[in-house]
Amino acid sequence: MGDIVRRIGLSLGADICWPLCFEALMRELDLRIPDEKSGDVIRFEVERVFIEPFDLRQGCKYDVVVDRLTHWYHTSREWIKKAILMDGLYVFNNPWSVQANEKHTTYCAMMALGMPIPDTWMVPPKSYEPTPDLKPTLSRYAKLFDVKRIGDRIGWPMFMKPYDGGGWRGVTKVDDAAAVYKAYEESGKSVMHLQSGVKDWDRFVRCIGFGPQTHCVLYDPNAPLHDRYTMKRDFLTKKEEEHLRKVTLTINAFFGWEFNSCEALHANGVWHPIDFANPCPDSQVTSLHFHFPWMVKSYVRWATFCAATKKPMRKNQDWAPFYAVAAQKELSYEEKLDRYAAIADERFETARFEEFCAKHLAHLDEVTWNFFATPTARDAIQQKVAALFPAHEVEQFTELFWSRIQEWRRGAGTGTGTGTGTESADKKGAS
Ligand SMILES: Nc1ncnc2c1ncn2[C@@H]1O[C@H](COP(=O)(O)OP(=O)(O)O)[C@@H](O)[C@H]1O
Ligand SMILES: [Mg+2]
Predict the structure, then answer these.
(1) How buried is 144 (Cβ within 10 angstroms: 0-12 exposed, 13-18 middle, 19+ buried)?
(2) Is residue 308 a part of any domain in this protein?
(3) 197 in ligand 1 pocket by Cβ < 6 Å?
(4) Residue 105 within a domain
(5) Neighbours of 71 (CB within 10 A)
(6) Among residues 69, 100, 131, which one ends one of the domains?
(7) Contact in structure between 5 and 307 (CB atoms under 8 Å)
(8) Is 141 inside any structural domain?
(9) Is the pLDDT score of 71 beyond 50?
(10) CATH code for the domain in which residue 161 is found
(11) Is the CB of 198 under 6 A from ligand 1?
(12) C-alpha span between 217 and 408 (Å, rounded)
């Protein structure tokens, strides 16, 4: 019996804080896990992935790549796709799916599965790049339309937002005709959606999904950036939490985005998902603060599970089983959700994952709890704050985020939980 080394590569862009914490925790844990088949001992090495020219026939030394870059950096995206196809690499998230599926597609797919997405229209862009075929195409085929009439039809207010949105870019709430004309004028060459505003909502929740792990946060869209992820507790009943878990896992399994967040608004007894094409969710301490330790632990659990078990990468998105459930007319939406979530649990290997965490990562809660009291952790936070805030605010905001993490530590007790990696285990950390 010998040692097997599994290499986890971090493909990063502007990330600073979570990789530092991830690397420190992996060092501290120094995991040695018996391989289920050979009995050899599996160790893990973590490395940052560098950007460089590559031979298409060269091998890949990583078993798992945690990817935070390829949605906008295409050399790395193509390298990752090559390594999946040729070298058996496992990556989250699926790069083809990230490349192909915009917010628009996610609305359509989840409408087809029966989710109560608000009424949404797509409109052709207001202006165009001048190309030789533009004039003949538009003069023959583009119909005149009035954006106001869409509002009259689906109801005011509406939200005008890009079909491939993210990060609140170009999102405008439009209350009337004048506002929608102005927003459309300003949208320029972007292809936009007009979406009926969810009225009288009482809660806005972001449910972060990471493999089978989920974590719901009450979100305040009107607060400054560092206060949007609230620290509120007990804002969901068990049933609601379970509902949002199933919605999130359904979306994530459908698209092969095992790391994604789903935004949903609750109004009149219904949870309306409004934005769930976020396959590189915010992982920064400057937004997550209190929830940051959950995020770092989730990275550790899912990356080590996928690397240790050599989880095979699902290269195609197999949608047929979801559509087969959707077609069963006798089932209610909740019953369908149960079945969709069962497909997700199968694809994410939830039961095996929980067993893995209980067996090999039972000490993760305690190690994390201890780590977030160390100067290394504080320094990681300070480095992120220093990258985002003006110099005179660095100390103040480092202290703010640090104090919120200490509040998490006080709630987590000694952190000696079973740490199965599910929300319920982490509730301890957040309650
Ligand atoms: N249909 C809607 N009803 C109510 N509020 C909405 C709706 N769509 C968007 N919003 C508001 O606008 C914000 C940004 O829209 P979102 O679809 O999340 O875009 P992005 O992908 O840029 O995050 C949301 O967080 C929410 O506050
Ligand atoms: Mg959003």
Answers:
(1) exposed
(2) no
(3) yes
(4) no
(5) 17
(6) 100
(7) no
(8) yes
(9) yes
(10) 3.30.1490.20
(11) yes
(12) 14
